[in-house]
Amino acid sequence: MMKRLTHISILISCWLVGGAWGFGFVSGTAGGFIVHAEDVPAVEVESAPVVETPASLWDAAIAARKADELGQASRLFLRYYEKYRKTDKAQEALWQAALTKKQLALVTTPPEWEAVRNLFRMYSTDFPDAEHSQEAYFEIGVSHYRMKYYREALIYFNLFGQRYPDSALTPQVRYWQGKTMVTVGRFDEAAAVYQEVLKSEDRTLRILAMIGLGETYSAIGRNSKALQTYLSIMREYPKYYYEDLDFLVNLGNAYFKVGKEQQGREQLFYFLNMTEQPQRRAEVLFDLAESYHRLGEDASAQKLYANVIEEGKPGERPVVLALFRQAEFLDDPDKKLSKWQKRRDPTDPAGDVPYRVVLDNYHADPIAQDARRALFLRYKARGNFEYASEVGKSYLRNDAPGLMAGESKDFSNLILLYLAEELLAKKEFEKLFHLYEIEHRHVKTLDSGHFLFLVGQALEALSLYDQAGVVYYRALSLPIADQEKVALYFRRAEVYLAQMNTKAADLLLKYLRDIYQDSKNIGEVYFLSGRLSEMEGRSAEALNYYTKVAAAPTFPEKKNLYAQGRLRQMFRLALYDEMLDALSSYRQEQLLEAAELQSWYRRLGDELRRIDEQKTFAAYLAAVSEDMPREVEAAQHIHLNLGDMFYRLGEVDKGRDHLVKAQQGPDMLLKKRAQERLNQVEIDQGTRLKDRLRGNS
Which of 5, 271, 358, 428 is 20 to 30 Å from the Cα of 315, by its Cα? Predict the structure, then answer.
């Protein structure tokens, strides 16, 4: 390496000699002079290269570690190992490289646990019988746990016991094994492992095992047991929280889960007063805010959420969740806002962002259900059924059946009702049936029969009468509004009639005639009873029921059906005079459409032609009066018959008029027949004229 030197005397050798021996050259002396450095040009010389030795590299690694330059220290130790594998310190160098890398991972974000695992694995492979081989194998499992490779972690922890059955590290390995089991939901096994670790002589490990037991009990909902476990730690080791401040958070959350909010808050406030970790402060502030939120202390909760946002970093979990809680509060129409707060517009899609961020990043977190609920209400408010259905079904999948603690109403039921009403209105009957099937665990916890009533209607529309009957029966076993209960009874009777299950229909209708005897609902019961009697061929009984319902209709909009039923029975019983009177009455009251009236008049007239010609005229003429349909097949048929009848009575002109009108109808065959009749009329008229003339002559 070349290095530029400072200016020196060209007599440097003499100066050095003089400096060393006391000689000197003084200006003005004989032959002596002084040369200044600035008067001499620079001279470039090559310095000797720095030679790295095992000792210097080791010292550099040690120095980096002492200076807390953990990344550099790990790299230097690893370099030592790779370069000087045959030295006595090579094994220790690799071990120190792994340890310093682990120390670095514990304090950096994001941690490089994969690199840590690789270093410990290298040590375990290269030095299987070394001093730290057991610890290295154990650390591989721990690294897998921290990488969230839980299956691999359990494999290493299980194999550790087989490879090192008498290891002093076994209690630590078992502790981490239990910790991993809790994470993957193997709670019973985890509790057994922690109980085993409690026998360890290591005080810290025993405490950690007790904390692990508390976490296990909490995970399986044994919240009182979890709190007792944490309190036992406080009794046995009252100063332990100084060693592990997070224990206060565990204790506080355990209080929260048994409803002791004030005691829980005290523990979290202790933590906040003692901790120096900004990230943990934001997390614990959020837990505190949630406590106030649960009790409806909105002002305090919102202040704490604001503190979370102020102290936390954007994008971190507590900040994301605090922003969501703020949005949720401003969306809730039941919340009272301060004068500087503004209600959010639920129809604005931009307002969905806080909820979407929660669902995108923390969909498995319990708070995600609150985000789904709020987002469902926003979609519902803007009438977006597709999105509301998607989020609503997601809520149902993630919700446990029945009321949760602190709930006054089951939101899953509200979602089911909304989806059912919309699907029924859209006539998407199969989708409604599928909803009923797939969400049956929620259906079983319904506190009202309304949803089942809607499902039954869909099943009816699909002609699945057996299933509809069962669903209606179940609906009647649940509380239901009186008017809806009446409608449900009627629909159930309709199902029995559609199934032709006359026995079940008869039993039900007898019951309904009894309970609704003095009610306006009796009219519909009579109508259904009439249909049953008609189905069984008991026309007189059916007519009696239809006549009763005409006098006391339950549903005025169904008077048409009531009238049709009565007319059918009159016709079957050959009560033609009564039919004429009934048709005249229905015509005046406009209970039947003109086409329906015309059809009945035609049927009656056709039947009366064999019995009473005069009444036939009355029926036919009523059927083709001015307020009746004209250019239709029924009118064409009646005009043809009237033409024949008038002609036979000698009223040729009237007969001809009706035959001409018959020619104007849509049916080609009837047109042809009318023309043939007209031709015959002309022939007959001509013949009569000739006969008359012949007689006169």
Answer: 271
